[in-house]
Design a protein that fits this description.
single chain, 398 residues, DNA polymerase, domain 1, TIM Barrel, 37% helix, binds iron/sulfur cluster
Length: 398
């Protein structure tokens, strides 16, 4: 977004998007000492205060300038809905220009073999340009990139709720709305803020970035160094079918994506996580499992199979449980670690983008019918091995 054209509220950056060095420089311009940056940072990151007024013993004039220059929180309002008996909290965040984004907080109680976890799934864009047909966000289209502070403030929102209950966030995954590696100039600073011990302070191994396969972005993430976990939205191992299910496959074919992921695993020592949404009769056949085995055999990888959430504009449904189990068994017998995942929060529409889509209202019935007919035709051609003749979606990079 060009800030000069943004609504007045948006022209004040969010405090959480500033590095400590930027804050020190801003203070120095006003003749203020560097230690004030630590005071302000403590207020931003403590999770215990709702505004700068609640926290810091600052001189009145500095407080006034700080408030005029920056927003303490870039999320104007958050609606939280509970599901799964309280184990899932779906948050719809209203941003200052009216854009809506979602985050999902998932609680995993302690087990004999593992301590309790609280994992937050966050959004990196409002809408998404990639347009995966099984995804509610893809149906919404692309609105805009999120600013760094708008990404980080989803985390601060969930963290405040947890801290009030005496709990703390343990994991963050970039798997919400948007393709994070198409907004890398804002996502990388957000990751650094979340990882920085003087800011949010979450270990790199507890931060996962999920991509549908932006190869240059994977390489930039690898070059960053620390051991962030990489997840690839794979969905199909055959190019013809993946062209339909993940349209940016027309720009970066699946073999190139997996090669970049292998380089990430070799550089960081971290296992790659591959996500596969299981769609009945589309990507769940023996031929698909065999192609996945051929693609991933011997890799430092783990495959998650996830039954598809029903979304209005597709003719598809989730694969039956026995089909998913057979698919998993074929991968496992080839030595590929595989887990069948439940789908958290279905009762509140926790498929990425569903809450925002409901807010936007149902698309007109003729548009849904046209879309369904196109998907039927495209997937039928793909199952015969025909590559798509359509161009890659606009805005997914050259
Ligand atoms: S699945 Fe991810 S990449 Fe695909 S349209 Fe949805 S948000 Fe975008």
């Amino acid at each position: 977004m060009d800030l000069a054209l943004a609504p007045p509220e948006m022209q004040r950056p969010g405090l959480s998007g500033l590095t400590p060095g930027m804050l020190v420089a801003w203070l120095a311009e006003r003749g203020e000492p560097a230690y004030r940056a630590r005071q302000i940072g403590d207020a931003v990151w403590s999770g215990k205060v709702a505004s700068i007024d609640d926290a810091v013993p600052l001189p009145n004039e500095l407080r006034r300038q700080l408030t005029e220059s920056f927003r303490f929180d870039t999320v104007a309002r958050t609606e939280v809905t509970l599901a799964d008996g309280g184990l899932t909290e779906k948050a719809l965040h209203h941003l200052d220009d009216g854009a809506l984004v979602e985050s999902v907080l998932m609680h995993y109680p302690a087990r004999p073999s593992a301590s309790e976890r609280h994992t937050l799934c966050i959004s990196s864009q409002a809408g998404c340009a990639v347009g995966c047909p099984f995804c509610a966000t893809g149906e919404l289209g692309f609105t805009r990139d999120l600013q760094t502070a708008e990404i980080v403030d989803q985390v601060r929102s969930a963290s405040r709720r947890l801290i009030a209950e005496g709990r703390r966030l343990t994991n963050i995954v970039f798997m919400g709305m948007g393709e994070p590696l198409l907004n890398l100039d804002r996502v990388l600073p957000a990751i650094e803020a979340l990882n920085d011990p003087h800011r949010f302070g979450l270990g790199a191994r507890h931060i996962t970035v999920s991509t549908s396969g932006v190869v240059p972005g994977i390489r930039r993430l690898t070059a960053l160094g620390p051991q962030f976990t990489l997840a690839i939205s794979l969905h199909a191992a055959r190019d013809a079918l993946r062209d339909v299910l993940v349209p940016l496959n027309r720009r970066w074919p699946v073999a190139d994506v997996v090669a970049a992921a292998r380089e990430h695993a070799a550089a960081t020592g971290r296992r790659i996580s591959y996500e596969v949404v299981m769609i009945g009769g589309i990507n769940d056949t023996e031929a698909d499992a065999e192609a996945m085995v051929a693609l991933l055999r011997g890799d430092h990888a783990h495959v998650n199979l996830i039954p598809m959430n029903a979304v209005a504009h597709t003719p598809w449904r989730a694969s039956p449980p026995r089909v998913i189990e057979r698919f998993a068994a074929m991968l496992e017998s080839a030595g590929i670690q595989t887990t069948i995942r439940g789908n958290r929060g279905q009762e509140v529409g926790a498929a990425c983008g569903q809450l925002a889509a409901e807010h936007a209202g149902l698309p007109p019935a003729p548009a849904v019918a046209r879309r369904r007919a196109r998907l039927v035709a495209e997937s039928a051609a793909a199952l015969l091995g025909e590559r798509s003749h359509e161009p890659a979606p606009a805005g997914v990079g050259e």
